[in-house]
Amino acid sequence: MESVLGRYRNLIILVGVLFLQVLGLAVQVKTGAERETRLIRLWAVGMITPFERGLVWVQDSTGNLWHNYFYLRGVRAENRQLKDQIEQMRLEQVRLSEDAAQAHRLQTLLAFKEQFVSKTVAAQVIGTSGSDLSRIVYIDKGENAGIKPDMAVITADGVVGKVLLAGTNEARVLLISDQTSGVGAILEKSRLQGVLRGTANGEIVLERVMSDEQVQPGEAVLTSGGDQIFPKGLRVGTVTNVANGKDLFLNITIKPAANLGKLEEVLVLTEKQEREAVTEDNGRVRAADILAQRLPSVPEKPAGDAAAAGTTEGVSKPGTGTGTANATSKPSGTGANPQAGVLKSAAAPNAPTAKVTPKTASLSTPSIATQKPKPVNTQTETKPQSAQAQTSTDPSIVEQKPAPPAAQPEPPPQDNSPQ
Amino acid sequence: MPITYTSGEQVEVYRFSLPVTIGVPLVALIVQAYIPKYVPGFAVYVDLPLLVTIFFAMARRNPIAGLFTGAIIGLAQDMLGHNLIGIYGIAKTVVGYGASSLGVKLDLENAGARLLVTLGFYLVHSAVYFTVARALVNMTQHWSWPHGILAGLVNGLIGVLLYFMLDRFKQRT
To answer: Which of A137, A375, B43, B53 has the most crowded CB, counting CB atoms within 10 A?
Structure first.
C-alpha cells in the first residue's frame, strides 16, 4: 500500500488539488459566487491595485511633463481651432436649449417621470482583469468616494458598464461587453427595445428584437432605463450589423460608443433621482397653447372689420382706441424669463407696453411677443388673481378682458368673468 | 530542433529565491492587468501568468511544486476577474504539473523547444479552461483552432524572450 502511495504520490496530490478546486467551484455555483467570494476578491484587488495605481501615477507624471513642457508644438493653432469650435457649440447650445425647454413642457403636460443624473464621481481606470474572458476594469475610487455596487459607469462618449464590487479605495467595473452584463437598450429611431449583452468574443449584441422588425446599420442605440441602473437616454453605441438570429430574433451587433478598450477616465453615477418633469417656472401650460405656437398665425383683420365684429379675446383693435391687451389667449409659452414683466411689440416699437405679472409673463415668451405684435395703444396691467380677469378654469391662464374705454362708443364684448 | 531526452540524473534542477518566487508571479499578474488598459488585444493573445507557471515548473522539475505554483497563480488570476474562482486555478494546476513532469524527461533549455512546449501548454491550458467553463460552470465558450494556435505562437515567442530573462534568477541546487 505504501509503495503504491509513494509511486503515485504526485498524481494523487494532483487529483487532490484538482478535486478541492472543483469542490470550490461547486460551492460557488450553488451559493452564488459574488457573495461568497467577495472578501477574497477584495483582498486580491487590494494587493494588486496599489502597484497599478503607482504605475498610472508614474505614467501620468511622465506624460504631463512631456505634454506640458516639451511638446507644445501646435498649441496656438489648436487653441484657435478650439475657440472656433466653442463658438459653433454655443450656437448649437442655443438651439438645443430651446428643444430641451420644449421637451420639458411636453413632459410636464404628460406628467412624465424623468430620471436625471444628480451626482457623479470621476474616477481613473487603473487596470483590468487581464483576461479576455472576464471583461472588467478597476477604478481608483471606492466606497470612500460613495461608490456602491450596481452604479452606472459612463464616459462622455457613452455607457461603459456598472460597478460590480466596491472596495475601500477601488472598485471593479463590469464592462457592457462582458458576457454576464445586460443593459436595457432602445434604438433611437425605430424605438425598438432590447437587451444589450456581451459575447464570448467581446462583441456586443442587442437581443430580443423580433426578426420582422426593420433595423438599419448606423442607427444609434440608447439606454432605455428599464434596467434601473442606467438612466434613460444615455448613448450606448451604433448598430453595425443586423442578421437573423435564433428563435425569431434578430442578431444585432453594436459598436460601443465609448472606447472600452482604452478607458482612462470614467464617471460613476453615484446619485440619480426620479422626479416629475417640471418646467423652469412651474407654470401650467395647455396643450392647445403649445399647438397654437406651431400653427400658422391668422393675419390680423383690418381695423374696421375687427371693430365691427368685436372680440371676446381682447384682441387689440388698431385705430379704435380700445387699447386692450391680450395676455393669455394668444400663443404663449413657458420658460420665459420670470422677470420679463413687460412685453414690448417689436413690430410696433412705439406702442405702449402691456405690463403683466410674473405669473402671466411665464406664459408668454419674449420671442413669442415679437412674433405676434399687438398694436395696442393703451397700457394695461393684468392681474391674474383679479376676479374680472378670470375666465379660464385654469388658474394659471389669465384672460384679460378689455376695460370699457372712454372713447369706445360700443359696449364691450360679453363679459363672462365672475363678478 | 534539439529536444534532448535526458535521464533524471542528467537534468539540472533549479531553485529560486523567495523574492523571485513571489515577485515574478506578482509582476506577471500586475503587468497582465495593466497592459490591456492600453493594448486591448493583449489579454486576448498573451497570458503572462501562464508563461511564468510554465517557466517555474520546467525549471524546478518537481511535479508537486509545479502543480502548486500553477494552482496559486491560477487562483490569483481568478480572483482578479469576476468569473468563478477555480477555473484558471484548475487549468494552471494541470499545466504546472504537466510542464514539470515534462521538464523531468526533457531538456528544455533551447529556444525552439521552449517555443513548442509553450505552444503546446497554451493549447492544453485553453482546452482545460474550455472544458471546465462549459461542463462545470455552464459558461458560454467558443473554441477556435486558429485563435488558439495564433495565441499559442504569440505566447511562445514572448515566452522564449521571457524565459531567457528569467534564467538569470535560476540558482543551482
So the answer is: B53
- The grid cell for B66 is 509545479
Residue A262 DSSP class: G
User: Measured between alpha carbons, how far is A196 from A335 in angstroms, rounded to an integer?
Assistant: 37
> Dihedral sign, CA of A79, A82, A88, A93?
negative
**Model pLDDT for residues B31-87, shown as the tens digit of each residue:** 998 888 888 888 889 999 999 999 999 988 889 999 999 999 999 999 888 888 999
β partners of residue A272:
A117
In this prediction, residues A239-251 reach a mean pLDDT of 84
Q: Which distant-in-sequence residues (6+ apart) come within 8 Å of B14 by Cβ?
A: B59, B60, B61, B170, B171, B172, B173
Q: How do residues A311-354 score in pLDDT, each as one tens digit?
A: 444 444 443 434 444 433 444 433 334 333 333 333 344 444 44
Cβ distance A158 to A263 under 8 Å? no
Q: Which H helix or E strand runs over B25?
A: helix B18-34
The answer to whether the complex's ipTM is over 0.85 is yes
CA distance B1 to chain A (A): 30
Distance CA A335, CA A313 (A): 23
The residue written with cell numbers 503515485 in the block is A8
SS3 call for B108: coil
Amino acid at the residue A35: R
The C-alpha of B35 sits at a distance from chain A's nearest C-alpha, in angstroms, of 8
Residue of B nearest to A10 (CA): B64
- Output the nine-digit C-alpha cell for A18: 484538482
User: Rounded to an integer, what is the distance from CA A411 to the centroid of its chain?
Assistant: 53
Task: Search chain B and give the residue with CA nearest A29.
Answer: B137
Q: How far apart are CA A167 and CA A148, in angstroms?
A: 9
Amino acid at position A110, single letter: L
Cβ-nearest to B85 among A40, A131, A202: A40
Residue A304 burial class via C-beta count within 10 angstroms: exposed 0-12, middle 13-18, buried 19 and up: exposed
The residue whose grid cell reads 433595423 is A215
Selected for mutation to probe chain A from B26, B29, B85, B126 (highest A CB count within 10 Å) is: B85
Residues of A with Cβ-Cβ distance to B82 under 8 angstroms: 34, 41, 129, 134, 136, 164-165, 172, 174, 178, 180
State the Cα–Cα distance between residues A402 and A380, nearest whole angstrom: 9
